[in-house]
């Protein structure tokens, strides 16, 4: 079986390796660096910056209380950029080694379908070659959405790509968009002394997450001096002698925000243009490739995974879909439960969520019970000096089945997997409360929150 994979991001390279493991002859086509957006200008580099700024902020705020004299601690922005680039190189090198180990052939260039069984690959030097295949997996990812805001093309208006590699920390930054990316960059730059303002059209930041954990983030933003304007529309961006001016409007009238840089962070769109998809009959909806449960498109034998199919735009989802497509092609399909996809935000505090929010569960007609345990009552969080968070369960009141788990606090993005597994196994509260959790850990707060649903939390003052 000859398989060509178009795109070497977290969906594409995983699909290529899994298909090769199952005995396919695989060719991976990538025009840029291996690892895609996630590894090069997304998940990995942002977390490098967030990790350093979290340590820095913690030492500045809590160092004395922790017994650490850190009055002169500072961040070397240039060195941090070098470390970020080193981590990227290490990860791309690791992917390259994995592809070589699994005998995946690589072609560097841009791919375009010229038939349902042929891909034309154009290299950087203009040379062209045609690759025949039995099956194809499209994994071209996504790119920052363009916005019809007057002035969006002015110098100093940047996307997330630019925000990762600014030559210096700007004195002030206005972030348009209060989703995951916008909030993570707000955490990074505010920690480094930059005056940050966030503008969001919706009523709340990170609207897809449960309101209780988002409020923990709002409180931290307020204490850090981050100014947040929700239910606010950006009318235009203007150049001034001092920098940039963002003109906004809301129910309270118009408002002007002065900033040295403006970050556009209003979402991403699938990369599907120029691939020749329409020419061979692949169906798209608003630029996203239509797929079935096996990730197969409207053309038999051609599959699409990750952001380009317009589904859940997360790296771990792309990887899971890559495995689904590869195994379906090779006759070994495996089910994946997309109810259990964790969403993670690496701010301070970290936010993590899986399953339904309380509002979603009520909208779907469930009789809902919730259990909340504040991390100020968790010993490990106290020890770490990071106790301004909580754990929240959303439960079906009829049978105690866990519908959702939502966490704000340290290690939230690591321990959310317990909730994902619980939902995958259709677990009830009994399975959680009868499972002994280690002490002292942040994870034992999941045990306490499960008890809290029925008012039985041991370490909670009611």
Question: Descriptors for this entry?
Answer:
alpha/beta, single chain, 15 helices, five-stranded parallel sheet, 462 residues
Strand content: 25-35%
Alpha-beta content class: alpha/beta
Shape descriptor reads globular
The quaternary state of the protein chains shown equals: single chain
Task: Tell me the strand order in the biggest sheet.
Answer: 3-2-1-7-20
The amount of helix comes to: 25-40%
Cα gyration radius (Å): 24 Å
**Distance N to C terminus:** 63 Å
Mean pLDDT equals 96
Number of strands: 25
In short:
The protein is α/β, with parallel strands linked by helices.
Tell me what the structure shows.
The chain is α/β, with parallel strands linked by helices and 462 residues long. The chain is 33% helix and 26% strand. The protein contains 15 helices and 25 strands. A hairpin with a 5-residue loop joins strand 5 and strand 6 (128-132). Helix 1 runs parallel beside helix 9. The chain is globular, with a radius of gyration of 24 Å. The model has no long low-confidence stretch (mean pLDDT 96).
Write the layout of secondary structure elements.
Blueprint lengths: L1 E5 L5 H10 L3 E6 L5 H6 L1 H24 L10 H25 L3 E4 L1 E6 L2 E5 L5 E5 L2 E4 L3 E3 L12 E2 L1 H4 L8 E5 L3 H12 L3 E5 L11 H13 L3 E3 L2 E8 L4 E7 L2 E7 L1 E4 L3 E3 L6 H4 L3 E2 L2 E2 L12 E3 L10 H15 L13 E3 L5 E5 L2 H6 L4 E7 L4 H6 L5 E7 L5 E7 L3 H4 L1 H8 L4 H5 L10 H9 L10
Helix pairs in contact: 1-9, 3-4, 3-6
């Amino acid at each position: 079986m000859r398989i060509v994979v178009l795109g070497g991001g977290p969906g594409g390279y995983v699909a290529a390796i899994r298909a090769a493991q199952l005995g396919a002859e695989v060719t991976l086509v990538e025009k840029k660096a291996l690892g895609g957006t996630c590894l090069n200008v997304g998940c990995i580099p942002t977390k490098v910056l967030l990790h350093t700024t979290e340590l820095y902020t913690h030492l500045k705020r809590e160092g004395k209380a922790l017994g650490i004299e850190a009055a002169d601690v500072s961040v070397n922005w240039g060195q941090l950029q070098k470390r970020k680039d080193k981590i990227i190189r290490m990860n791309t090198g690791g992917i390259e080694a994995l592809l070589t180990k699994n005998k995946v052939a690589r072609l560097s260039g841009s791919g375009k379908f010229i038939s349902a069984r042929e891909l034309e690959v154009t290299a950087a030097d203009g040379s062209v070659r045609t690759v025949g295949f039995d099956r194809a997996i499209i994994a071209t990812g996504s790119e920052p959405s363009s916005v019809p805001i007057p002035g969006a093309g002015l110098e100093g208006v940047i996307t997330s790509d630019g925000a990762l590699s600014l030559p210096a920390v700007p004195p002030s930054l206005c972030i348009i968009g209060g989703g995951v990316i916008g909030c993570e960059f707000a955490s990074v730059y505010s920690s480094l002394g930059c005056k940050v303002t966030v503008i969001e059209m919706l009523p709340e930041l990170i609207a897809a997450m449960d309101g209780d954990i988002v409020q923990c983030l709002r409180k931290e933003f307020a204490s850090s001096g981050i100014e947040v304007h929700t239910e606010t529309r950006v009318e235009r961006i203007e150049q001034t002698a001092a920098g940039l001016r963002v003109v906004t409007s809301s129910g309270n009238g118009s408002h002007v925000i002065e900033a040295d840089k403006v970050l556009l962070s209003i979402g991403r769109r699938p990369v599907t243009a120029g691939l020749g998809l329409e020419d061979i009959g692949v169906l798209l909806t608003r630029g996203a490739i239509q797929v079935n449960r096996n990730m197969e498109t409207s053309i038999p034998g051609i599959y699409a995974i990750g952001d380009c199919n317009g589904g859940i735009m997360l790296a771990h989802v792309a990887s899971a879909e890559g495995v689904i497509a590869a195994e379906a092609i090779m006759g070994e399909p495996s089910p994946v439960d997309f109810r259990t996809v964790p969403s993670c935000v690496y701010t301070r505090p970290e936010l993590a969520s899986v399953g339904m929010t309380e509002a979603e569960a009520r909208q779907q007609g469930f009789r809902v019970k919730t259990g909340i345990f504040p991390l100020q009552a968790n010993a490990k969080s106290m020890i770490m000096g990071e106790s301004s968070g909580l754990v929240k369960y959303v439960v079906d009141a009829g049978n105690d089945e866990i519908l959702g788990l939502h966490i704000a606090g340290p290690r939230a993005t690591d321990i959310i997997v317990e909730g994902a597994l619980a939902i995958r196994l259709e677990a009830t509260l009994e399975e959680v409360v009868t499972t002994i959790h280690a002490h002292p850990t942040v994870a034992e707060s999941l045990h306490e929150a499960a008890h809290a649903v029925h008012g039985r939390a041991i370490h909670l003052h009611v």
